[in-house]
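pasting input
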Amino acid sequence: MDFLIFQVPMLTLQAVLDGLLLGILFALIAYGMALQWGVMNIINIAQGDLVILGGYIAYFMYLYGIHPAWGVIVSPIIMYFVGVVIYKLVINKVVDRDLFISILATFGISILFMQLMNFAFGADVVLANSGYGTTMLFDNSVTLPNSKIFSAFISIVFAIGLVIYMKKSKLGRAIRATAQNARAAKILGVDTEKVYAATFGINAALCGVAGALISITFTIHPYMGLPYTIRSFMIVIVAGLGNLPGVAMSGMGLGVFEEFADYILGTEFRIGSVFLLLVLILVYRRFKLSRKREYLK
Amino acid sequence: MNKNIVLYGAILIFGIAAPFIFPAFKVQLSILCILIILAITWNVQGGEMGYNTFGNILFYGLGMYLCASVQVGMFFPLGEWTEGGGEKTFVHTPAQFFQGFAVGLAVAAVVPAIVAGLIGYSILGLRGHYFAICTLGLGVAAGEISGGIEIIGAGQGFTTPPFPNVDRLEARGEFFYFCSFIVLVFTFLAVKAIYSTRFKLVLNAIRDNEDKAEAMGIQTMKYKIIGWMISAFFCGLAGGIMGGLVGYIDSTDVAFDGREMGVFMVLMAILGGKGTLWGPVIGATLFHIFKEGFWTFFLGWQYVALGVLIVVIVIYFPEGIMGWLREKYPERFGEVVDEADRKAQVTLK
């Protein structure tokens, strides 16, 4: 192997660190995906577009002179209501239906969002400059932007906060009860309609946080949503529903994989390799299960 | 039977006369034929077999690239052609053009079918939404990867051979129209023939309950792979013609255009009615009329309209037009209806 990345150990370290910090962000998005999948049995293709929309909220705060880091607070609040509105308009009609219907309906929402964002914000690649500077490690051979460290830290704070909220609060318990058995929860007096709306709202809010962080650390563009959806889907199927440490681990693993793919194959194959990895993981699981004469479902 | 012959004859005559009646719409009519082919092939896979795929765009794009590559590569060095300006230095004679196109179409049909057969065993073992997402990933991955391959033009695209200079100005449009129309007729008749055999019943059994079908002794995997190969064969053909018609192939915007074509074919089949022979044809025709009207008069808002259309169709008309007609006039579809029973069911609801 004569790739540069394996000859220079510092470059490997750089890729691993970048990947881990990126992966924590992916895990946050995947957490929202796992939440709605587990509770409502919905696969949301518009997940990535919600992320990008959250990013644009932070970007606009930056344009109007507010520090974009405040987007971490503002964006989830706005996105929560966006999520509830989407739920009321579309999602509540597909909750009990075939999963393919929900995939296709959210695909429609995704296309709609993409184009509306394209109209509203323009087709330029933008980023919100946080002005945090960079940290140099190991004699200036490894550079870590402080914004990446900040975003990883905020993601962890939000993830832990949400876990505690789900365990302790009344709504959290209602959500978990609905996920276990929606009918029984309904009989015992849980307003499942409200629970679903709140779940979708929380998911959108998580996307908002992740989007705000992405607009600080990376770049956003109206058409960049779908890769985030696929990444979070992939993380969830590798980790399994309701396995939070697993989501965090596989998120970071995916981040590291992407950084290495970027170095080895070249940036033009980065997104392609993510999608190909999804196919490979699904095929691998299919063969593993078919030995027991089972299948993914 | 007699009525059917009159109907088919009328459609055939209209199809042959159409480019002469509406000479300004030849390209639109050709695209309509391509869309109908795609909707029919998606329906074999998604409607009859119940394997909802977003990945047939893979075969469409593959066919497009293969047809153009063969057409160029048979006579000229492909690398120099795609590197830029090749279409200006090398000129196909008419004989070379048509010969290359014919061979290209054959390759564009056969190779995707083989690819479908090869990946079928792995991919078709997935079910339901895993299959849908996996094929979505496959389509996007193919677009991203082909956008990085130098010999087929990479990011800057691939200009297909220009139509040779013949005396008549109208010849190009007519040639591509009749190509797509003949392929459409061929596809329709082939699918109609397939639907009258036991094969269709097997596919429907797989759709309704795959485990039970397997328990009845049907080798479901074999039939699923054959079904996908049929789908891929016609998708590749459609892609090959479309490449020549558009004249320019871009990896993500023309060939592996999952956001447009890949969704269109699903939408058209659902709009017309999944699991029927005529549903995709009607759905594609209506969709194309709607699309062209919207694209012309509200340019810029087309994706917004498309997104809303997808949501509305999926939520409110999941059975499609044929499903609605079937609900309304079940006698026409050969279903025997007991009036009293029907009324009783209605009141029970």
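fyi The longest strand of chain A covers residues 134-137.
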